[in-house]
Amino acid sequence: MQSKENILTCTEEVRVRFNETDPLGIVWHGHYIVYFEDGREAFGREHGLTYLDIQREGYVTPIVKSTCEHFLPLKYGETFRIVTTFVNSVSAKLIYTYELFNQDNKLVCSGETIQVFLDSNGSLCLYNPEFFQAWKNKMGL
């Protein structure tokens, strides 16, 4: 369970590009997972936990689960906001939730991704790597 006081979020504004849409001008469903990636990248830059930071420490964080629920379509040329929230867990994993809001501030889609830590040998980490625990402590988690 996450304390309301220490919720870490990041908001990123994005514009739908032509190549992300189908012939009807609607965003193809597979691009929403890419938008989640955009949210994670922005979160990492804002809060000091980028993929490059993780790699420098000798770890990779593959996604082991992703969910996405669609409520409204996005269309070519529209702007939208990705709100990415880190979900604190005692387990050695990165859990993020996502909410995408259109320019009318209506919820377009929501989702979640779960990533685990693998060390340089490709072994699953059962405990938080030291650098990650230090980051969580710094963030008050």
Could you characterize what this model shows?
It holds the Pfam family 4HBT_2. GO terms for molecular function: fatty acyl-CoA hydrolase activity. There is one protein chain. This protein is of the alpha+beta class and 141 residues long. Helix content is 23%, strand content 32%. It has one domain: Roll (Thiol Ester Dehydrase, Chain A), CATH 3.10.129.10. The chain has a 5-stranded antiparallel beta sheet, with helices on one face. The radius of gyration is 16 Å and the shape is elongated. It starts with 7 loop residues before the first strand and ends with a helix.
Please write out the topology.
Layout: E1 8-15, H1 31-47, H2 51-56, E2 63-70, E3 79-87, E4 93-102, E5 107-116, H3 130-138
Search tags:
141 residues; alpha+beta; Thiol Ester Dehydrase, Chain A; 5-stranded antiparallel β-sheet; 3 helices; 5 strands; 23% helix; 32% strand
Could you provide a short overview of the structure?
The protein contains 3 helices and 5 strands, in the order βααββββα. It is α+β, with helices and mostly antiparallel strands and 141 residues long.
The share of residues in extended strands comes to 25-35%
How many separate structural domains?
Answer: 1
User: What is the mean predicted local confidence, pLDDT?
Assistant: 95
Helix content: 10-25%
User: Strand arrangement, largest sheet?
Assistant: 1-3-4-5-2
- Please identify, by name, the CATH architecture: Roll
Helix tally equals 3
Q: If you consult CATH, what is the topology?
A: Thiol Ester Dehydrase, Chain A
The biggest beta sheet, please?
A: 5 strands, antiparallel
Care to count the β-strands? 5
Q: For this structure, what is the CATH class?
A: Alpha Beta
CATH fourth-tier homologous superfamily: Hotdog Thioesterase
Family: Belongs to the 4-hydroxybenzoyl-CoA thioesterase family.
Pfam families: 4HBT_2
Keywords: Hydrolase
GO molecular function: fatty acyl-CoA hydrolase activity
